[in-house]
Each structure stands twice: as C-alpha cells, then as structure tokens.
Design brief:
2% strand, three-stranded mixed sheet, two-stranded antiparallel ribbon
C-alpha cells in the first residue's frame, strides 16, 4: 500500500497541470458527451479498451475512464485470456497499441492520467485520480514486457525535443510510467534496456533515467546497476549528481558501497564546484561505524575549500582589472558569492551527517585531533569545529571545545589560519557566529594563559569581518568579560576593546554607550584596568576623529563627580580618568589634522589646561591624591606621545613647582626646631659645597607631623608633603627626558645633591628616643630611601663614568640605610610607614591590612640562608655594609664596627610595599662588574672607582628586586586569576609601573641582561672556588669572612632563582616565542661553546645544561643547591627529550643530599628554610631516579639504621643530610613518593601472561616491603607529626593496593601462590601496626590524628573483605578465618579501657592455605577478644569485629 501511495504522489506531480484543468472543468459543470468525438479505430486495442471502460482521445488531452482502474485492468485481462486467439491476441493488441500511438497527440493522451467520466452527475463509482492508460496496461503482467519494449523504443523519438509549450517532457513522462510498478516481470532485462538508453541519450534524459532507477528496479538488481553506475561516474563527471543521487537510494552490500565510495573519493578533485555538496553528502551518508574515521580522514585530506573560494575571487579581480566598467563588476561578483554558497552547502551536508550519526561527529573530532603538524591544518578544521559546536549532536559541543583548546595550546592552529577563515569565508562563518562567540567566551575565560589570546583574536576578527549585529554582540560580550571581575579575563577584554578602538574607531563609536556602562562596575577593577578603561573611553570621546563625542559630557560629569568625592577610592579613579582624558585630548596629531602644522588647536589646549588645573586643585588638600596625580601624569609622559605644547606646558610648571617645594639653597646653618637635630647628609659634590642646593626633607617632614594634629580644626589647604617628593621627582625627570630627548643635564645636580636629614648616630640609641621621635626617624629613613630609589631610576641609563659612579654610590646609600632602618624599626613596634604606592588601596586600607613583623634577633648564618623559590626576603640586605660602602656613605668607622654586633632587627620584606618601585631599566646596573673584598685588598680604591664595580650588597639588593618583578609578571598567570575578595590588591602593590609592560617585553629585557647575570654567576663560582682552595676545601676556614660569605651566598642563590624564574615562563611554550627561547638558551650555551653554526633547540638545551652543571661544585648552601637542581630541571624541559637528563638530575640531587652543609661560622645548616629546601630536593631526587622503590628502600633500609646507631647529634653516614632533626622531612617525602609510585604500578589484567604477572607481583612486593619498613619506624620515631604522615599516607597506600594490587592477586593466586602469600603476610604486619596507631590516636584524643582514623579503618575493613573475595574467587575460602583483634597502643600494650566499653577494634589478617582446613591453635569464642599472633605459619588470619567500625567513626 505504501508503494502504491508514493507512486500516486509522484505521478500527481508530473501531471499536475492536466489534472487541475480536469478538476476545474468538471466543477464548472462541463457537459460530458458533447466534446468527445466518437472513437472510430476498430483494432483489437481500440475495441478492448473501449469495452473495458476507457474513452480514447486523439487531441493530446487526457483519456476518460468510466470505471475504477482496477476494474479496467481486470476487464482487459479477462478479454485477452478468454479470446480464442490467446496468446496470439496479445501481439495483435500490442500492434494495435503501437499503431494507435504513432500519432504524437494520441501518445501524449495515453501518457497523461485518465480523467473520471461523469454519468448523470454521479461519480461515486470512480475515484478522483486515475493512472494513465499505459500505466494501467503495464499493471497487466502478460502485457508488461511488450509495453515496456514499446515505450523504450518510442523514447529516442522524443529525446531531442524540447518542452517549448511549457508542458512536461515526453521522455520524462515515459520514464515515470515505469516507476513504482507493483511487480516487474523481467527486472534484469529492464535494467539492461534502461542502461542502453542511458548510453545513447542526451544528458538531460540520462539524468532523468539515472535518478529514476531506484524507483523502477527491484532490490535484486541494485548491486548490478550500482556497478554500472560506478563505471559511468568515472567516465562522465556531468552525471555525478544523478548517479550519486541514485546510488544513495539503492540498497547495496557494504563491500560494494565501500568500493563505490572509494571510487567517488578518487574523483573528488575533478568534481565541479556546484556538484561538490552532493558528493560530500553521499560520502558521509554511506559510512558505517567501523570505517567512519578512515573515510572522514580521507575526505578531510582531499576536500580543498581553498580551491572553491580563491579561483572565483581571482577571476573577479582579473575581470575588474580588464574591464573597469560596471558590467564587469556585476558579472564577477556573483561568482565569488556562488562559491561561498557552495561552501555553505558542503558544510550543511557535513552538519546533517554530524547531527544524525554519532560516529561521524566522533570521527571528525578524532581526525582533527590526530593532525600533529601546523601546516597540515586547514580552514575546514575550524569550520567543522564550529559545526560540531553549533549542532551539539551527541554532546559534540564539549568535544569541539576541548579539541580547539588542545590545538591552540600546542600551537597547531596559528593565527594565520583563523585570519584566512574570516577573510575568505566570512559569509560562511557568519552562519556559525553564535558558536564562534561562545567558543571565544570559553577561551577568554580559560585559566590556561596559552589559549586566552586565541579567544581574543576570534573576537577581533568577528568584529572586523561581520555585520553590525555581530559587532554589537562582540562588544556586549567583551563588556560582560570586563564586568566579571576575574583578573586575566578583564585584562584581555580591555586590551581587545582598546585594540578595536585603535583599528575601527568609527565602528566602535556606535557602541560607546555599551562601553560606558562599565563605569558602573569600576569597584571591581584594579588601577591598571581603570587606566585601560578610561584610555579607550577617552579615545572614543576625545580622540582625533571624536566619533564618540556624544559621550563627552558623560565623561566630564563622571570625572568631576569622582574628583569632588571625599572617598579616597573614588578620588583616585577620578584622577586616573582625568589624566587619561588629558592623554587623549593632548595626543600628538599627525600632520593635517585640526591644523596645517599638526599641532593642537587653541581650544583643545585650553581644555587640556583646564582639566589639569581641575585635577591639581582637587588633589591639593590631600598629599596622597597629589602624589597619585604626579605618578599618573608621569606614566602618561612615559607611555604616550603628547603634543609638544602640552609637554612644554607641563614640564615648565613641574620644574618651577619642584624647586619651590622641595629644593633649598644651603646656608651656613639650618634654622628651625625639629624633633631631631638637622644635618646635611649624603653630598656627592664635595667640591661644590659652597652655595649648593639640598633636598629639604627633614624640615618638611617635621612641618607635616606638626600639621597633622591641626588638620581637623583648619580648612583643607595646599600642603607640601614629603610624601610627594619621590612622585614629583619622577614626573620632573620624565618631563625632562621627553623635552630634551633623554638628556638630564638640567637636573643632574639632584643626583649628587645632599639631603637635610639628621645625624644617623641617633639610630644607635633608638631605644632612648620617645615614641614620636622614633616614628619620625623611621619615616625620615623611608622617605630618604625612596628618594634615592627614584634617583637611581632617573640616572641609571646615563653613560658617563662619573654619573655611573654616583648611581652606584646611591645604591650603596640605599643598602646602608636599609640596615639603619632595620634597627630603627626593631625599636619602633606598631609603626606604620608612609605610603609610597598611591594607586592601590587607600593608605588606611594598607595600614589596616599591614601586620608589623615581630621583633627577632638576627641569627647566625644558619638562619640567614635564602628560601626556596618564591619565598624571598630582603634579609640579605639587612646586614651592615662592608668597608667600601661605609666609606661611600660617609659614615664613621665606629658605626661600622658597632653594626657588626648581633642586634635585634626585622625583615624588610614585609615593608616592601612602602618602598618606591624600581624601574626595570634600573636593573641595567647589573651589567657592571662585581666588587669583592679580595679585589679591594689587592687593588687601590681609585682603580675601583674608575671601573664602577658593583658591591655584593648592591648585587643582592638588585637581584632581590629583579626576582620579585619576575615572580610577579612571569610566574603562571592562572595563579593570579580569580582571587578571593581583595587579595589581588595586595599582590600588585609596588608593581604598577611593571604592570604597564607586557610579559614579552619583560622577558626580552631579562634576556638582554643574561650575559651579565652569567658573569656574576661565574664570579660567585670563582669566589667560592678560591675560598675552598684557600681553606683546603673547608668552608668555614680562618680565611672566611662571614659577612661577605653571606652576601655572596645570597647573591649566588638569587642568580640561580632569577634564571629559573625566567626560563620557567609559560610564554616560551607559545609558537611565537620560540626564537626568544633560543636566544636565551644561546646565551647560556655560548658561555661554554663560542660561536659555531646555528644550533638546534635540542643542542642549545644540551650545552646550557652542561654549562649550568659546572656550578655544582661550589654551592654554598642547600638552598642554592636546590635552586641549581630546579634550574637544570627547567632547562631540560625546554627541548629534546627530558628523559635524557633525568639520570643527571637525580645524580646531582643525590650528590647534594650526600653533602654536609655548613655555614660560614662553622655550624651545620638547620631551621625551617633548610628543611623546606631539603624536602623539595629529596622530592626532585625521588621523582627523577629510575627506580623509586629501590631508592626508598636504600634510604629506609640503610640510611635510617645508620642514624639509629649514631649518637644524638650525628647524621647517617651514607646520607649526611639525614639526622634526627630532618628525619620527618625524609619520612614525609618517602611516604608521599612511595604512595605515588604505587599508583603508577599498572593494574593486573586477566589477559596478562605469567611473566607480566610475575613482574607486577615483584614490584608490589618491593612496594609493600618499603611500606612495612616505613610503618615500623613509627615504633622508634613516635612523634605526632610522624604519626600524622603515617596515617595519612598509610590510608592512601592501602587504597592504591585495593584498587590496583588486589586485582593482580586475584589472577595470580593460582600460578604464584607462594609470592601472593608472602606479600599478604608482609602487608598484614603493616596493617596491624596501622591499627595500633589508630588505638593510640583515640587514647590521646589528638584531633589532628583522629581525623585520619575513620577513613583508615574503612580501608582496613575493605581490605579484609577484599582478601576474602580473592580466596573465594580461587576456591580457597576455607583458608580464611576471622577473629577479633585486641586494641593495643604503639608499644603493643593492650588498651584495657576499651574492653569495658565493649568496643572491639578491627584489623586485618588473611588466611590463605590452599587445600588445608583452617587450624585453630587456640580455642576461641567469637565474643572473647583474642590476638591472632598464635596462628600457624601456613595460616594468616583476618580478624575483625564488625561493631568496631561504628565506634571508630565517633
């Protein structure tokens, strides 16, 4: 029935015109008989048909039928069969038919559907639709073959005729007669004849025949016809579409389908563009689950979308060049559009296949993921990922996102490919815009810094390539990112908005209102982000084109509102915003903008001046606000190109104001009453002492202190605060640099000029001062140090020797003053220093969050060692300086001697936010040579001065600052993402200038300094080598200067940390930074091997590793040794095979662990920092060693027994770093690494052969033996921390054993019964000890220990049942016996209190004894506690009381 119905619908379509006419005429009440001429043809055919109920027409219109078609067919069949001339009558009938249809009009009538004949208005006996006469005759099986032959013979007559009258074509009508027949008598012959027709027919007829084949032929002929169509496809590409259309409808065997598909795939390159979608659709819809991946890979390789798009575009451009006229242009444009349409259709085919076939979507993902070369990726890959994301068929969205991130992270999807996709396929990409936007959002939110920029580029290209709706969505999405408050996401989104404003100002101006909305969310933004926000808003509103001028008034309102706020936070925002607006209004214009000479108009200049005046007047009353204004204006001067008129105006006013506010002429004496006596200090221009200038610091500070109490009663007014001294000088210096192209001659007197301070002897008697005087002294020291830091920033790039010498002296002043400040702070508890960074939290906020470090006594060398990476402090600089520094700072000898005594001090690390930030360029001073005491002893001071050498104290000072900078900017960005509450503000204090540089710039600058750092590294190495040779290999010999040793040791370690932090930068893994990495490694490699041809990355890593390895012999402390090990590990990961370096790294770590570490004063190193370094170094050793289990056994089985036999203070002979103080460190690392190693043992499988099982069993035997040794050590070292480690890692090890070890025992028990029994026996001893530790924890009610007990007890109970299950699996359950185990403490004594409570504990022991019945040595009752120690050797018991688990969990 279904086939019948479908046939009717097909034919109804073909004869639509005629049928409709028939219906219309019937409804209009046509007279039935009048218009029908009487049939005169008296042949058999005519007579039979008329008698059966059909009235024939000869004018080309439809015949009429008076009965139902089934009745008609039945009557014809009966007439033929009842005829005495049967079967000859059949031939007569056909001859009559042939004669009748020789007339084309009659033939057409026979092809058209018959019309129902109305009789007296009653048509109930005839259905509304009837088949054509020929089709009804085809339904009679005896006539079918004859009529088919007749029809196919008539076909060539009409092949070349068109359908001029608009009616259906005769060939198509003939073919339609053959479709959907109820039965085909001779289907094979029919298929052969049809293919003969195809071989001679024109293309149109060929297409009609081929597409109709599935509807004509029966299934039995499908395979044969498919083979013929396949060969036809190879010969004639014009028939590609109909052939594939037919093939996709045929019912083929899988092997034939595969064969056809391969043939089609082979012709892919030759297929015409408009046919390509059909080919792709056929290929994808003909795959099975088994060959989906292979087919998709092949299709992906052969489908070249570039060939679809580029040729038309090239043709279009060529035609435009040849014909400049409009006609040529209009003709060429559709070509490009149609090619994009073809690509769209191809992608729709892929989309359809992906949506309905799970295997196809998985195959595409797998195919794209398997591409491992950058150049092998195509635009198609990106487009398919977008398709998979948009359809989300079978959760492919997550897969597409994962693959995209993976490809971007590994650098296999370059920006060029993305650019090409947006450039050449913008029309296609537009259809997938929602997916592109969603993926860009996901990438931008990713915690992985490698993929974030790619998401940004997707946003950028979407904005550039798509229409205004998409642009609006992009801006809206970026604004959402900015308002999220997540650090990295906000930064990237703001950077993108800034870039779009630069590139497309007119388009962005349309969406300025969206961007302005961010102003409501500024509470969550950092100062640097607020700068970017105001930069892009002011660029839109006040830029050269002023496209966004409609938001100017809003900007002015916001700025004025913020500036007039009394809340410091909002005033800060106002100042930052106003300065950014000044930057946009006063920016340097290109020639021809606004005026002929390219300078600003007078009106704009007036607005700039007014804005600056407004900010100045708003910040006059608050020193913090004024200082921020100076800092922001200085940043603007440094980062922007301002109009010369603006520069000159700002520069002149700054110079005058600075001289008026802070500089005084020196008279014979200083008048005024101050908390401390005034004195001129630190003058470097002795010869110009007459009439020279000085910085008026102490009088200004005294005045400010005095005014603080009067502020509440007086109206706010302009104050000259020493707080503004350093920011104001920074602004002055940058203005001078801009105005005079880097020349600072106008202000070079400030480098050497003195300051009005007090006699620093007062620090010696700080305890005798009042609280106010002490705080005044500390503030004075902070301001002085900050002044010198800004002076170093200003003059560090000067080339003259005299200037460099003065800069070096100022560095020595800083390091010396820090020792004085150290002492002063120690005597001034509760003191909060003056703020030096003004764009972070408000001063009150910093003061509240600031905790003053507790006083402490300076320790000897053991306590002064540097921390592991990331834990740096300024302790190294809080020592007093050496002789040279003391001379340079004009301090008397007695002070220097006093400073050498051990006195109370504080760590200045906690005070770092209160020091002014050193510029990155100040680190350039590191390029000077290193001054050591040995050089001073053998050379004259004048020689030293000429060479401008860096002292060890200054080296440590600069390296600590460099390390802080690198750790802030280069260590993984995700670590700084999404901070909780206000943590982010604290971390960025003191890095506001650094934040305005990109990490690439910072890394490049560090790499420029690498040769100097290597030189210092070699100098430190040579220093310690010389020291060892002088002292005959002893570190603490008589020739050792303790203080110099400390400085050089700190410097050595800092240099290694700086190198490690630089090489650890995650950006090196990005494709664009490969050259930077090669350059950096080239510096290290070049120290060892000069010149040579261009080396590969692997060779550079090899030479760098060898170079760094040379420093191993002179490590002064364990901290430095750890830094070297980490640096070697980092470098080895940068290229080649890291496994090649594992052995060397492990050997080096073992060498350091086997070394006695002594301080310069002769004591052994100890303390928390030493333990931290030891922990990390031991972890490095066990991670890199070949066999962790053997290494753990060596330490636990050899080193610890040596320790037990040694006296209390002695170390183990084979492991000198292992003593009673460091035992916990060794124990914790061994337990952790043992558990990690157990997790890596492959799980046992049923399919493993005997050899593999033996190997895994052996490994588990080793692991369990190590575990047993470590657990048993608790009997000797029973301190709480050791117990804690044992309980924690004991549970983890037990869980690993249950998960990975027990399946192995299940399969191995029968073949390796002895080994399994031995392993479980050893393990039972360990679990028994763990059980005793649980009892001990509960008796002592120690929460830190009892927290681990429930989880451990659960695992112990699981272990019991798991062993029982293993024995049952191996038909050995009778060997398992369970009893109760007594609760005991660590010493094995029974815990009696538990008996009275009736809470018996559980522990583990199993019985395996295949084939033997369980033997009871003791008569035991289940209710009676018993110990399982009396069980025979061939039995092991699992003892457990189920009630215990409830007790343990309490």
């Amino acid at each position: 029935m279904m086939r019948k119905k479908r046939r009717s619908s097909v034919e109804k379509g073909e004869g639509a015109t005629t049928t409709t006419k028939a219906k219309r005429s019937r409804n209009a009440g046509r007279q039935p008989k009048e218009a029908v001429p009487e049939e005169t043809h008296q042949s058999v055919f005519g007579a039979f048909v008329r008698e059966a109920g059909v009235a024939l027409r000869s004018d080309g219109t439809s015949n009429e039928i008076a009965v139902d078609q089934v009745v008609f067919q039945k009557r014809i069949q009966q007439q033929l069969q009842k005829s005495p001339r049967y079967p000859a009558i059949l031939q007569e009938f056909i001859t009559g038919l042939e004669t009748y249809i020789e007339n084309p009009d009659r033939f057409r009538s026979c092809l058209l559907p018959c019309l129902p004949q109305l009789s007296d208005g009653d048509s109930s006996s005839v259905s509304s639709f009837q088949e054509s006469l020929l089709r009804m005759l085809l339904g009679i099986e005896t006539l079918q073959t004859f009529i088919i032959n007749t029809l196919l013979e008539k076909l060539p007559e009409f092949m070349l005729e068109g359908t001029a009258d608009g009616g259906p074509s005769i060939p198509r009508m003939i073919i339609n007669q053959l479709k959907w027949l109820d039965r085909v008598v001779d289907t094979k012959e029919l298929s052969e004849k049809l293919m003969e027709v195809v071989s001679v027919a024109p293309v149109d007829v060929q297409r009609d025949v081929i597409t109709s084949l599935p509807e004509i032929l029966e299934d039995s002929q499908h395979n044969d016809i498919a083979r013929q169509l396949n060969s036809l496809l190879q010969e004639n590409t014009q028939l590609t579409v109909p052939v594939l259309d037919a093939l996709s409808s045929l019912n083929l065997t899988s092997s034939l389908l595969s064969e056809v598909r391969e043939a089609v795939m082979a012709t892919l390159a030759a297929v015409q563009l408009e046919d390509l979608p059909v080919v792709v659709k056929f290929i994808l819809h003909s795959v099975s689950a088994s060959d989906a991946y292979e087919v998709v890979c092949s299709l992906r390789k052969k489908l070249e979308l570039e060939q679809c798009v580029l040729p038309p575009v090239l043709q279009a451009s060529q035609s435009r060049m040849k014909n400049k006229g409009a006609a040529a242009k209009s003709a060429s444009e559709p070509a490009a559009g149609s090619s994009q349409d073809s690509v769209t259709l191809i992608l729709d085919c892929i989309k359809s296949a992906v949506r309905f076939q799970k295997t196809i979507s998985e195959a595409w993902l797998k195919a794209i993921e398997s591409v491992d070369e950058e150049e092998d990726h195509k635009v198609l890959d990106l487009l398919v990922l977008f398709i998979l994301h948009s359809t989300n068929a079978n959760q492919s969205r997550r897969g597409a996102e994962r693959v995209l991130k993976l490809k971007v992270r590994t650098g296999l999807l370059p920006e060029a490919l993305l650019q090409k996709a947006f450039r050449d396929y913008s029309q296609v990409m537009r259809g997938y815009f929602p997916s592109i936007l969603a993926l860009a959002q996901s990438l931008l939110r990713s915690p992985d810094p490698c993929v974030v920029p790619f998401g940004g580029r997707m946003y950028r290209h979407s904005f550039t390539a798509f229409d205004s709706y998409c642009q609006q969505e992009v801006v809206g999405s970026l604004v959402t990112h900015v308002c999220s408050g997540v650090g990295g996401e906000v930064d990237m989104a703001l950077d993108l908005l800034c870039a779009l404003v630069e590139e497309k100002p007119s388009e962005m101006a349309l969406y300025a209102v969206f961007v302005k909305g961010i102003l409501d969310y500024m509470d969550n933004l950092t100062p640097q982000q607020i700068r970017k926000l105001f930069h892009l808003l002011s660029k839109l509103a006040f830029g050269q084109q002023q496209q966004g001028s409609h938001i100017q008034d809003d900007m002015h309102i916001v700025i004025r509102k913020q500036l007039s706020s009394t809340v410091p936070k909002y005033k800060r925002i106002g100042i930052i915003g106003a300065v950014m607006i000044v930057g946009s209004m006063g920016a340097l214009r290109p020639k021809g903008k606004e005026s002929q000479n390219g300078s600003l108009s007078q009106e704009t200049l007036r607005q700039v001046t007014a804005m600056l005046e407004l900010v100045k007047s708003s910040s006059d009353s608050s020193p913090e606000a004024a200082a921020l204004y100076y800092d922001e204006l200085a940043n603007l001067m440094w980062s922007s190109a301002l109009d010369p008129q603006v520069q000159e105006m700002v520069g002149m006013s700054v110079l005058d104001d600075f001289q008026d506010d802070f500089v005084v002429d020196l008279g014979p004496d200083i008048t005024g009453s101050f908390p401390l006596p005034a004195r001129v200090m630190y003058n470097l221009d002795e010869e110009e002492s007459q009439g020279c200038i000085a910085i008026n610091l102490l009088p200004l500070l005294a005045k400010e202190t005095q005014n603080k109490g009067e502020q509440q009663t007086k109206k706010p007014q302009k104050q000259v605060s020493p707080l503004c001294l350093s920011p104001f000088f920074r602004l002055l210096r940058l203005c001078e640099e801009k105005r005079h192209q880097g020349d600072l001659d106008e202000i070079d007197a400030l480098l050497g000029c003195p300051l009005i301070l007090t006699n620093m002897d007062v620090v010696e008697k700080v305890e005798s001062l009042s609280k106010t005087e002490r705080e005044f002294l500390c503030s004075l020291l902070f301001h002085t140090i900050n002044w010198f830091r800004e002076v170093v920033n200003a003059f560090c790039r000067q080339k003259e020797t005299e200037m460099k010498m003065k800069v070096m002296t100022r560095l020595q002043n800083i390091t010396y003053l820090q020792t004085l400040l150290d002492r002063a702070l120690a005597g001034t508890p509760g003191y909060v220093p003056p703020v030096s960074s003004f764009d972070g939290e408000s001063p009150d906020g910093i003061a509240l969050s600031f905790t003053v470090p507790a006083n402490k006594t300076k320790k000897d060398g053991a306590g002064r060692k540097r921390k592991a990476p990331g834990k740096n402090s300024l302790e190294g600089t809080s020592q007093s300086e050496e002789a040279t520094e003391a001379d340079e700072t004009q301090q008397e000898q007695p002070e220097k001697e006093k400073e050498k005594e051990a006195r109370p001090g504080v760590s200045l690390t906690a005070y770092r936010p209160f020091f002014r930030e050193l510029d990155l360029e100040a680190l350039g001073v590191l390029q000077c040579g290193l001054l050591s005491r040995s050089l001073l002893d053998s050379e004259l001071h004048t020689k030293v001065r000429e060479d401008v050498l860096l002292g060890p104290g200054e080296l440590v000072f600069l390296l600590e600052d460099m390390l802080h900078k690198l750790e802030f900017s280069l260590t993984a960005a995700p670590a700084r993402r999404a901070p909780f509450l206000k943590a982010k503000a604290d971390k960025s204090v003191g890095f506001s200038h650094l934040q305005q540089r990109s990490t690439e710039d910072i890394t490049s600058y560090c790499i420029q300094l690498l040769p100097a750092l290597c030189t210092h590294l070699e100098n430190c190495h040579n220093h310690f080598q010389a020291l060892l040779s002088e002292n005959n290999g002893v570190v603490d010999g008589p020739a050792t200067d303790v203080q110099e040793h400390q400085f050089m040791s700190s410097g050595y370690q800092l240099l290694l940390q700086v190198l490690n932090t630089t090489f650890s930068w995650s950006g090196f893994s990005q494709p664009g930074q490969r050259n930077l990495l090669k350059k950096a490694l080239g510096v290290l490699a070049g120290r060892l091997k000069e010149g040579g041809p261009e080396l590969t990355l692997e060779q550079l890593v090899k030479h760098s590793f060898e170079y760094l390895l040379n420093f191993r012999s002179t490590m002064p402390s364990l901290g430095a040794a750890l830094c070297l090990s980490q640096l070697l590990s980092t470098v080895s990961e940068k290229g080649g095979n890291p496994a090649d370096y594992r052995e060397q790294t492990a050997f080096l770590a073992r060498h350091f662990l086997s070394q006695v570490w002594v301080t310069a004063s002769g004591e052994k190193e100890r303390g928390s920092k030493f333990n931290e370094a030891l922990h990390t170094l031991l972890s490095i050793y066990l991670e890199h060693v070949d066999d962790v289990l053997k290494a753990v056994e060596e330490i636990a089985g050899k080193g610890i027994p040596e320790l037990l036999n040694a006296s209390k203070e002695e170390s183990a002979a084979s492991w000198p770093t292992l003593n009673r103080q460091t035992f916990l460190v060794f124990y914790k690392v061994m337990m952790a690494e043992l558990e990690k190693a157990a997790r890596k043992i492959p799980a046992g499988k049923m399919s493993d052969n005997s050899e593999a099982q033996s190997e895994k069993l052996l490994t588990w035997n080793l692991a369990v033996r190590d575990f047993h040794i470590l657990v048993n050590l608790v009997k000797v070292f029973d301190s709480r921390p050791v117990l804690n480690v044992c309980l924690k890692y004991g549970r983890l090890f037990l869980e690993s054993f249950l998960k990975l070890g027990m399946p192995l025992l299940d399969f191995s028990f029968k073949k390796h019964k002895e080994d399994v029994q031995s392993l479980l026996k050893t393990f039972q001893l360990s679990t028994r000890q763990l059980h005793h530790m649980c009892g001990h924890s509960k008796i002592h009610q120690d929460t830190s220990l009892t927290n681990h007990v429930p989880g451990l007890k659960k695992s112990l109970e699981l272990f019991v049942y798991r062993v029982k299950a293993m024995l049952m699996l191996n038909n050995c359950q009778e060997a398992f016996w369970m009893g109760n185990l007594k609760n005991r403490n660590l010493k094995g004594e029974e815990i009696l209190s538990q008996r009275s409570q009736g809470s018996d504990d559980d522990d583990d022991g199993e019985e395996e004894n295949q084939g033997l019945p369980p033997q009871r040595e003791e008569s035991e009752d289940e209710d009676r506690d018993s110990d399982s120690e009396g069980i025979p050797r061939n039995k092991r018991n699992k003892n457990m009381d189920e009630n215990e688990s409830t007790d343990d969990s309490e």
